[in-house]
Amino acid sequence: MNSKLKIWLQAARLRTLPLSISGIIVGNGLAYGNDRFSLVILVLSLATTIAFQVLSNFANDYGDGVKGTDNESRIGPARVLQQGLLTRAQLKKGIQICAVVSLVFAFALIYVAFGTSDLQYSLIFVLLGIASVVAAIKYTVGTNAYGYKALGDLFVFLFFGGVSVLGSYFLQVHEFQIELILPATAMGLLSVGVLNLNNMRDLHTDKEVNKITMAVLLGASLSKAYHAFLLIGAVLTAVFYVKMDIQPAYLFMIAVLPMMIHLRRVLGYTDPQEFDPELKRLALCTFLFAILFAIGQNL
After folding, report:
1. CB neighbours (10 Å) of residue 211?
2. What digits encode the pLDDT tens for the residues 175-227?
């Protein structure tokens, strides 16, 4: 593989992609039985979400690199700007190209979903698409980066939960059901759990560079309690949703066992380096949770 391509793939952080599409899987799983369901909309939803995630990863690499947050004290994988594998100008160009690609996918998705008949829906989703691009970039980039003001958890909850699950469902069936807030909440909480784990790992280095995250605000002990709240809250909201069904499907509970093993480990850890392997485990548990939940809705 070309060395330059390897560098861009490293910047794209492919291991984050399964988590990013988990909400899309749940939303489409909930919509699957509807007569309107379209495979093309599913594929475009996945492509759009992946593009947004890659954009976010490029921007995160750039923002943290420029601010000096990614330094030799960082525990996680070294970033491309930090290592000097890409220049600021190159990475900034990559962000711009990825933003355009993201919007092209988003507009194609909106056109296929609504055509020219539902202009009000199209406008709402165009605004959501633009908001997604802005949110992806402003997480760490700029003087008012919200990821440095303990707002990352809120935005992840909204976009990976509400927008991802409810938005993908609406694109398919053109309607909203109030009870779907529950699975959207479950996916939002699990996604925040991954972010919180990342912030727990980086708590000390973030504090040194004045990057304020929920982990920095709460401290090590309360961050663990917060992590337990996020994971257990996600499971309970999903259980509550399926209990409302005539034929409740608890297939997703298969993913809960490794998730609780993960939680037990995290609660016992004291060394920040121990959190890093758990990031991949929780992300994969969330992905499995999403797949099993979607399958369970269609048994």
Report:
1. 24
2. 999 999 999 999 999 999 999 999 999 998 889 888 999 999 999 999 999 99
Beta strands in 94-185 (DSSP E): none
Handedness of CA 163, 168, 169, 172 (dihedral sign): positive
Residue 86 CB neighbours (<10 A): 23
Three-class DSSP labels, 31-72: HCCCCCCCHHHHHHHHHHHHHHHHHHHHHHHHHHHHHCCCCC
Q: Identify the three-state secondary structure at position 209.
A: coil
- Its domain, for residue 36, covers 3-296
Predicted TM-score (pTM) of the model is 0.94
Show the beta-strand stretches assigned E in the chain: none
Distance of alpha carbon 26 from alpha carbon 39, whole angstroms: 14
pLDDT level of residue 143 (50, 70, 90 thresholds) = confident
Q: How far is CA 83 from the centre of its chain?
A: 25
Number of domains in the chain: 1
Q: Which residues contact 179 (CB under 8 A, 6 or more apart)?
A: 241, 244
